[in-house]
Write a structure and sequence with these properties.
Blueprint (H helix, E strand, L loop, with lengths): L16 E2 L2 H8 L7 E3 L3 E7 L7 E9 L2 E5 L6 H13 L7 E5 L5 H4 L2 H8 L2 E4 L1 H5 L2 H4 L6 H12 L3 H8 L19 E2 L14 E4 L8 E5 L4 E5 L21 H12 L6 E4 L5 E2 L1 H26 L4 H7 L13 H17 L3 E4 L7 E4 L4
Parallel strand pairs: 5-6, 6-7, 7-8, 11-12
Antiparallel strand pairs: 1-13, 2-3, 3-4, 4-5, 9-10, 10-11, 14-15
Bound molecules: zinc ion (2 copies).
């Protein structure tokens, strides 16, 4: 999931060198990029995401002496399944040849099709333990529904009822079950530094929390590539939000630490899950760090100007890539993103957040010592 970012983040990507030039050309022409056989015998397969501006997930197929591993099978749809099967056929394989599925994170545009691929292949599914713990059926077991949890969170932030209804309906409308796809549990857990079980090939998991709590990047040192998932994309800034109500989470600080970590793989090519391949991980991480630093300053300014805004008012006054009244369905993601920045400023002692029972959360700047 990606939130429309601030104007500053929609750069032209000039800090990175695009290596996926056919992918970038396809992006500009609004068509799917081709299946590509990359250096190091890794395959890049675009799996479409129907009716979504991201358009596709780049799924990677990593062959080894013991079979194929698929990283992020993509969004579950008939079109997506056909694209995945066609891509595997280009690599001379069928779903039955897949022995493992590695998930960078559980967002449905990555993990959505794992269930279908697992059923067709009997492959194991691997992810980070913190990602397993965020699976919706684990995370929302105490809430009546995901929509109910989201409505409560919006109200606590001070969102007007009209926004709450527009975004998540009313309890009466919940005759339909939650439309979340069937997200399978992992068979294997990959900790930071864990090797993926492949014969004759190194593929190592790097824990890069931030976009999600258990996000993984994968390093293939011989091919000198890093599969960056949604952690680092060449142009889009990934959404960094608070994840549900778990106490003690620090997604923005985690994300910034994870960015600094990736900068040391600057001599590796980045294979992201969206957009196109590139080089320049150090420059791109720097750009993302600058973006969040600027955003933190902007939030402090907005709170200073508004006095004691609700969380919702502060969110609505930050600059997004389009005017607030056009942010539409992404308002909830924008709120989560603002909450992550508020959390960070609160942890730094620069903002104070008041959570009085039954009242929306209000923010104020901490007095200067
Ligand atoms: Zn994501
Ligand atoms: Zn994604």
């Amino acid at each position: 999931m990606h939130v429309p970012g601030s104007a500053a983040e929609r750069g032209d990507g000039s800090t990175v060198t695009v290596t996926g030039s056919r992918q970038k050309a396809a992006w500009a022409e609004h068509v799917l990029p081709p299946v590509e056989h990359l250096a190091g015998d890794i395959w890049s397969l675009p799996v479409p995401i129907p009716d979504n501006p991201l358009r596709y997930t780049l799924c990677y197929v990593v062959p080894s002496d013991s079979g194929l591993v698929v990283v992020d099978p993509g969004w579950d749809s008939t079109k997506g399944w056909d694209a995945l099967c066609d891509g595997l056929a280009s690599a001379g394989a069928t779903p039955a040849d897949v022995t493992g599925i590695v998930i960078t994170h559980i967002h449905p545009d990555h993990h959505g099709m794992s269930a279908r691929l697992k059923a067709a292949s009997d492959a194991w599914v691997a992810m980070h333990p913190a990602e397993r713990d965020s699976l919706p059926h684990r995370q929302f077991q105490h809430e009546k529904s995901r929509a109910e949890a989201a409505r409560n969170r919006l109200r606590e932030a001070g969102a007007p009822e009209s926004d709450v209804r527009e975004l998540f309906g009313t309890p009466d409308e919940e005759h339909r079950p939650d439309s979340a796809p069937d997200l399978v549990e992992p068979d294997l857990l990959l900790e930071d530094g864990s090797p993926v079980a492949l014969d004759g090939r190194d593929l190592v998991a790097l824990w890069t929390p931030g976009h999600t709590p258990g996000h993984l990047c994968l390093v293939e040192p011989t091919a000198r590539v890093v599969l960056t998932g949604d952690h680092i994309l060449p142009r889009i800034t990934p959404n960094i939000g608070l994840h549900g109500r778990r106490p003690g989470q620090t997604p923005l600080a985690d994300f910034m630490d994870s960015l600094k970590r990736l900068a040391s793989w600057d001599d590796h090519e980045a294979l992201p899950a969206h957009e196109y391949r590139f080089r320049g991980l150090a420059a791109r991480t720097e750009q993302l760090l600058d973006h969040h630093t600027a955003r933190l300053s902007e939030l402090l300014e907005v709170v200073g100007e508004l006095g004691q805004p609700t969380l919702w008012e502060a969110t609505a006054h930050i600059s997004w890539s389009r005017p607030w009244d056009q942010v539409g369905a992404m308002r909830f993601a924008a709120l989560a993103e603002t909450e992550a920045h508020v959390q960070h400023l609160t942890d730094l002692g620069l903002l104070i957040r008041s959570d009085e029972n039954g009242r929306p959360v209000r923010l104020r700047r901490a007095p200067v010592a």
